């Protein structure tokens, strides 16, 4: 017999990698699930396995989040389904290489999924959670949000957006009783990076470990969880340094060094 439901968790990018493990862990924690991804066969197989193992109610939605009609379908569910108590905003795609040589259609598609869809879905979930007076929103970013690296300019920028977006969204939602978290994976053994092929193994985290750490961070009420960062004070010091800049960011006169 399954445990009483903790509500419904909707997970995007749920058919493989990080999203698939979130589905496994959350079903075992007691959530019913709505799994969203493009791959219908993988979604169905995952739903069947988790229903058998956990007894949870699991629904699948086939959607390409770069497609407006598909995205709108998921938005509507997030906005209107009062049973949804947790949203894992995980879907993302990668397009890299030197920007001067980039396929701009691929870049645009990445922006549609990593930024536009992520924002619209977070907005829909937030509206639902505010109305219900409760809820949890998890945005999956990347450590590239904090790193400047060649050949990942556009992808890293999308993840920097997710991190900044989450910080500001927390200021809006946490006073209303809604928990917000950004998760920043490093190299993780998922299909997005060819399951770690060509990367030194000491730099690649197993996806199970990544998600377990992310959920531990959620339980600890962390706003930002960086599973591979052993010194938890490092990010706090970064935020302190950024905060110290605030008094000089606005003013009615340029700094003396810019005088003509």
The portion of residues forming beta strands comes to 5-15%
Query: What class would the helix/strand composition place it in?
Result: alpha/beta
Distance between the ends = 76 Å
What's the CATH superfamily, by name? NAD(P)-binding Rossmann-like Domain
Low-confidence stretches: none
Radius of gyration: 19 Å
What does this protein structure show overall?
With 260 residues, this protein is α/β, with parallel strands linked by helices. It has one domain (8-258): NAD(P)-binding Rossmann-like Domain (Rossmann fold). The chain is 45% helix and 14% strand. It has a seven-stranded parallel β-sheet with strand order 3-2-1-4-5-6-7, sandwiched between helices. The longest helix has 29 residues, at 104-132. The radius of gyration is 19 Å and the shape is globular. It starts with 7 loop residues before the first strand and ends in a 16-residue tail after the last helix.
Secondary structure blueprint with pairings:
Blueprint: E1 8-12, H1 17-29, E2 32-37, H2 40-54, E3 58-62, H3 68-80, E4 84-89, H4 104-132, E5 135-140, H5 153-173, E6 178-183, H6 207-219, E7 224-225, H7 233-244
Parallel strand pairs: 1-2, 1-4, 2-3, 4-5, 5-6, 6-7
Task: Quickly describe the structure.
By secondary structure, the chain is α/β, with parallel strands linked by helices.
Key descriptive features of the protein:
7 helices; 45% helix; alpha/beta; Rossmann fold; single chain; seven-stranded parallel sheet
């Amino acid at each position: 017999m399954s445990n009483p439901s903790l509500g419904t968790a909707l997970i995007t990018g749920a058919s493989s990698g990080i999203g698939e493990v979130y589905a496994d862990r959350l079903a075992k924690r007691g959530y019913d699930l709505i799994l969203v991804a493009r791959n219908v066969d993988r979604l169905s197989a995952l739903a069947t396995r988790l229903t058998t193992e956990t007894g949870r109610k699991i629904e699948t939605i086939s959607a390409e989040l770069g497609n407006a009609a598909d995205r709108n379908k998921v938005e509507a569910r997030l906005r209107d389904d009062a049973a949804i108590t947790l949203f894992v905003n995980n879907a993302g795609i990668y397009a890299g290489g030197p920007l001067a040589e980039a396929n701009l259609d691929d870049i645009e598609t990445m922006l549609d999924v990593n930024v536009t869809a992520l924002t619209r879905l977070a907005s829909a979930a937030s509206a639902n959670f505010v109305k219900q007076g409760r809820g949890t929103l998890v945005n999956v970013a990347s450590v590239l949000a904090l790193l400047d690296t060649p050949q990942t300019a556009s992808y890293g920028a999308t993840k920097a957006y997710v991190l900044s977006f989450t910080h500001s969204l927390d200021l809006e939602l946490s006073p209303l009783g809604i928990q917000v978290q950004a998760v920043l994976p490093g190299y993780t053994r998922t299909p997005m990076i060819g399951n770690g092929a060509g990367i030194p193994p000491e730099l690649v985290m197993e996806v199970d470990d990544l998600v377990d750490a992310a959920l531990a961070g959620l339980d600890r009420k962390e706003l930002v969880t960086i599973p591979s960062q052993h010194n938890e004070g490092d990010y706090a010091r970064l935020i302190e340094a950024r905060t110290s800049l605030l008094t000089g960011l606005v003013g009615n006169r340029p700094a003396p060094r810019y005088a003509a």
